[in-house]
Design brief:
The structure is a homodimer. With about 300 residues, chain A is an alpha/beta fold. Helix content of chain A is about 60%, strand content about 10%. The first copy, chain A, has 3 domains: about 80 residues, Arc Repressor Mutant, subunit A (Orthogonal Bundle), CATH 1.10.10.10; about 35 residues; about 160 residues, Glucose-6-phosphate isomerase like protein, domain 1 (Rossmann fold). Chain A binds a DNA duplex (30 and 30 nucleotides) through helix 2, helix 4 and helix 5. Chains A, B: It comes from Thalassospira xianhensis MCCC 1A02616.
DNA sequence: ACTTTAATGAAACATTTGTTTCGATAACTG
DNA sequence: CAGTTATCGAAACAAATGTTTCATTAAAGT
């Protein structure tokens, strides 16, 4: 069981000295250790976008004679892990509390997240998501509102959406301009409102205002009868149950992301091109960090 | 096609009707399920003292088309993907594309989310989260930085953290004050940086600056060798793989939330009281919508 | 500028893989 | 008993795997 850690550590410590292509391979291995254990070397190379020879060379570079050796150590790691996620959590529940309380809490969180995702992507919800997309695709302007803990979900959608459409508005109420941003909202627009109990007044007001202007509302919330879901054309109900003290909006983020994915899939090639343009612009603005060129002369 | 529900059950129930040699193979499979997932069919046959053809025949006998299918289900069990999801997704893949393409996409997203959560909350990562909490709990000030798509994760943490501690700073670079917000950062503070490839320059710069000031860094990122993870005291690696076009930061949000939960658990009663106070304040500011009193005649 | 070196991907290579074929053997049936 | 069937394993097969080779290219050194 020590073999695995050694190889992984070696991969990390030697990373800087590796050639660019080997870095690509090493990185994929570090990020997808299970691929090493379960898939073939060639399959891994394909996934990493690297010729098979590079992987072989990488083995030599980190002092491993053969891919089989490397793979074995990763398989052992898999075998050391308790078999099942559910089993893991259950086992922890039965163990002494003090040392494992943290671990138990984390496992509970993970379990809750998975359960929430499962509910949010149940068949009926998927149908509702598709309906929601129809409305969004037809809309003149797409407003998104989410305050407090729900803000990340709203932001996430607005950020991604703006990469391929210019008619998205994140109603974030900066500088108190909460009302301003909704000015002009009407029947041909759509408002996506994110919130869960306790509902934040601003969000409820925004929904009420939109409804009064006959603007269709898509509600991402915790109940079919949530105040922001009344008369909504699509109610995307996400469970926010969490063992932690706070309500969990992570599932809302997932749902918002799924909406974006649906829109992109619907938009086809044209949307992809727009995204490419947006990315170019970001690169031109020097937004992204250029990865360090592999230090050639810094080898040990 | 057909009975994917549980191949192991099928093996057990049909065991009596199988030919002696097939029973030998079946028995070995039942006794050594991991061999199915990790080793080759021929290797398994050797271990079971059976010619390869027997295994192939066994597959046909239990109604499985190909060894690959069989092996996949055992690999999934190892990876602990909830079976229902894997199967649902696979079933949809085989269905007519046009109507179900959206459904398939959504199922893939759900599946990916669950897999990502599973990885992020693997035992080793849980250890790292606990380490990270130690640093946060000791810190004089807690800085959080995340730009672009990673912003929701950073925001989520800052928002929740501020409910029970006043030493949290969300480095969001509003009004270009990106540098200002990091002024005074030092060895007794901690910087939590969230980001994935492509890394946004601001985030990388923030990390570099913090490191120069000898401030410990907690990196929530997509790789052990991410630029923002260099020399980090805790590297929380979250996979951002997603079938959608965009990288998925939902797992990062989950991890950030888990950090908060750990901190709250660690803080005990005192923290809970502070949260109660914070909520009272919010209520006093009229932040929350008062739910309509259940109208008497609107019984469910 | 030229030489030397390192890096890279395509192709070739020998194995190994999962599957199929086919003759041999055993078991059962009439 | 003969004849049919079911079972089995060796061999053949195409497809894949992991590795090595080699020519080409890009970078460093002189």
């Amino acid at each position: 069981m020590g073999v695995y850690t050694d190889l992984r550590e070696k991969l990390i410590s030697d990373y800087a000295t590796l050639s660019p292509q080997m870095q690509k391979a090493a990185r994929h291995i570090l990020d997808h250790p299970n691929d090493v254990a379960l898939r073939s070397m060639r399959a891994l190379a394909r996934a990493a976008n690297v010729p098979p020879s590079t992987v072989t060379r990488l083995m030599a570079a980190i002092g491993v004679d053969t891919w089989q050796q490397f793979r074995d150590s990763y398989q052992n790691r898999l075998l050391d892990l308790p078999a099942s996620y559910a089993h893991r959590a259950r086992a922890l529940q039965n163990s002494e509390a003090d040392i494992h309380r943290d671990a138990h809490l984390l496992q509970s969180i993970a379990q809750a997240e998975i359960a929430n995702i499962g509910q949010a992507f149940a068949p009926e919800m998927c149908e509702r998501m598709k309906d929601a997309c129809e409305h969004i695709a037809r809309a003149r302007q797409v407003f998104v509102v989410g305050r407090g803990a729900a803000y990340p979900a709203a932001y996430q959608f607005a950020y991604a959406y703006r990469l391929f459409n210019e008619n998205g508005v994140l109603v974030d109420g900066h500088a108190g301009a909460f009302g301003d941003q909704l000015r002009g909202i009407g029947p041909r627009d759509v408002l996506i409102a994110v919130g869960a109990r306790p509902y934040i007044r601003d969000t409820v007001r925004a929904v009420a205002f939109a409804r009064k202007q006959h603007c269709p509302v898509i509600a991402v919330c915790d109940s079919d009868v949530a105040p922001i879901a009344v008369d909504a054309v699509a109610k995307l109900v996400v469970s926010d149950s969490s063992p932690s003290f706070f309500q969990s909006f992570t599932t809302s983020v997932s749902v918002m992301q799924a909406l974006v994915a649906l829109l992109v899939a619907r938009g086809g090639q044209k949307v992809l091109q727009r995204i490419a343009v947006a990315e170019e612009q970001l690169a031109a603005f020097d937004t992204y960090h250029e990865e360090a060129a592999p230090t050639r002369n810094s080898r040990s």
